[in-house]
Amino acid sequence: MSEQDFNQLLKSKWAALFESKDSDKVFVSNFDELQMKPLDKNYIAYFNKPRTQNKPHEPDSFLKDDSNEETKSTEGVAKAVYKEFDENQFNFNSCNPAEVLFYVNLDEEEVISKEKEEEIEEEQLLNEEEQLDHEITESENQPIIVNIAPVCPNHCIIPLFPQEQLPQTIGQDIILLLLQVFKISQSPELR
Q1: Judging by DSSP bridges, how do beta strands 100-105 and 44-48 pair with one another?
Q2: What is the pLDDT along the chain (191 residues), one digit of tens a residue?
Q3: In a domain, 191, yes or no
Q4: pTM higher than 0.90, yes or no?
Q5: Number of independent structural domains in the chain
Q6: Sign of the C-alpha dihedral, residues 52, 55, 60, 61?
Q7: CA-to-CA distance for 191 and 14, rounded, in angstroms?
Q8: Buried b / exposed e across 144-181, counting CB within 10 Å, b at 16+?
C-alpha cells in the first residue's frame, strides 16, 4: 500500500465504524456538540463536550491527598504519569477487536489491512514450527485503534507494542517509531 493509503484507509475505516449500526458498542461519545475554532491556517482547536462527560476516567486519587501540597503537585503527578503495566486495569490488549482499524509495519513502513493481518495470524498458527516467527511478526505490526471518546473525527490511538505490556511512557525510541508513522502517512493533518 502507498503512503496515501494510510490516510485513506484511516478515514474510510474510521467513518465506516462511526456510522455503523454497532457504533454505540464502540464509541462512548458523539459529535453533537463539537465546537471547532481555527487557530491559523494549519491548526484547528476542537472541543467535544460529550467526550468530557462520557469518557471513562481513572480516579485521580493522588489529587485527593491534601496532607502535603508540595507532594500533591510533584510526586503525585509523577506517579500518575508513570504507571507500571497492570493487566487488571484497562490496557490495549483488552480493547474491543472492532476498535482496530488496521495495522502498520514500522520495519517495512507499510500499511496492513485488518483482514490481511488476520490471514497472516491464521497461517502462522497452522504451522507450529513458525510459532516463534509469529511472535516476531506480531510485534512488527502495530495496531491503529479508534479512540472510543474521540475529540474529533478520525481520532485514533497508536499503542506501540501493546503485547509487550510496557507502561505508557514516551522515550526516544518510541518518538522515533512514531516519526515513522508520520513518514508513512505524509499527511500534514496528522497530529
Answers
A1: unpaired
A2: 444 588 888 999 999 999 998 888 888 877 777 788 888 887 888 887 777 666 665 544 434 444 445 444 445 544 555 677 777 877 778 888 899 999 988 888 888 888 777 776 666 676 655 555 544 444 478 899 998 888 888 889 888 888 888 777 778 888 888 888 888 887 777 77
A3: no
A4: no
A5: 1
A6: positive
A7: 16
A8: bbbbbbbbbebbbebbbebeeeeeeeeeeeeeeeeeeb
The answer to whether residue 128 is domain-embedded is yes
Distance CA 162, CA 90 (A): 12
- Give residue 162's domain range: 3-185
Specify the DSSP element, H or E, that contains 45.
strand 44-48
